[in-house]
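Reopening: DUF924 domain-containing protein still failing for me.
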Amino acid sequence: MLLHDRHDQGQCTTHRAVRHEDAIQRFGRFPHRSPALGRETTQEEREFLDADGFAG
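Support: Ran it again with your exact input. Result attached.
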């Protein structure tokens, strides 16, 4: 059971890493961090975030 849980965690980690990379490739940054960094969010980023494109 423990080995199965670790395999599932690895898949989840890989999936998150790919989503992070996709966001950076698409926008050149993490759109969800813009407010905390004082950046304006573009319309494309807003649409992506509103569609639950990336929750961080």
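The mean pLDDT is 82. If you still see a failure, please send the error message rather than a screenshot.
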